[in-house]
Amino acid sequence: MNQTVVDLLERNADHAEEFESRFDDVQDSQHPAVVTVCCSDSRVLQDHMWENDEPGHVFTCANIGNRVCQRTDADEVVSGDVLYPIAHTGTETAVVVGHTGCGAVTAAYDAITGDAAGEPAGIEHAIGLLTPHLEAGVEALPADVSRTEAINQLVEYNVDRQVAALLESEAVPDSVDVVGVVYDFQDVYAERRGEVHVVNVDGETEVDALRDIHSEIAARIERRWEY
After folding, report:
1. Is 38 marked within a binding site?
2. Deepest in the core among 61, 160, 175, 182, taking most CB within 10 A?
3. In this structure, which topology does domain 30-220 adopt according to CATH?
4. In what order do the strands lie in the sheet with 177-184?
5. Are residues 51 and 112 in contact, defined by beta-carbon separation less than 8 angstroms?
6. 39 is in an annotated binding site
7. pLDDT (tens digit, 9 = 90+) per residue, 67-79?
């Protein structure tokens, strides 16, 4: 057997021993408090970033670029992965989680600026879902911005666009709170790697306004780019 799989099974045995009794209340149904939409980057520790060890508490979705939409024959709609807990389990909080140095945002930036390399069709499709939402952001970037800073500014811009898509969708009730954050493991926002920084709450992106409205988390509200 592949040694990686052997190692995974050994870790799962430890997990099963620790968690065996934690599924009693959620074996037959789930009512997660929040649905998170993360990038599937292996460095983004979806549950562990919240120190979540409670089955049934966080409904996690992941894809490259933390996208909330999918394309149908008729239109672009909120992805069923994201919408399911909102529509069926009473979940009333959605958190879009971008991350510093995002490869999908980088690929979309390169596609928009004409520097894209060829990709397999599936990756091209995923990046193609991002690029229309980021084009205006690329055009608005400061002229003297470095490539690294441009990517991290667009990470925030992408989070904003995904939050907007949820807020504008008729399939998402107005009662659902939508928050956008960035997970930092590259010392972009602070020296504490792994910290989450709030950049958008229900469409509000102005830092001072957010800090006034949400004073209890003022220290966690920060942006690289207020465009």
Report:
1. no
2. 182
3. Beta-carbonic Anhydrase; Chain A (3.40.1050)
4. 58-63, 34-39, 93-99, 177-184, 195-201
5. no
6. yes
7. 999 999 889 999 9
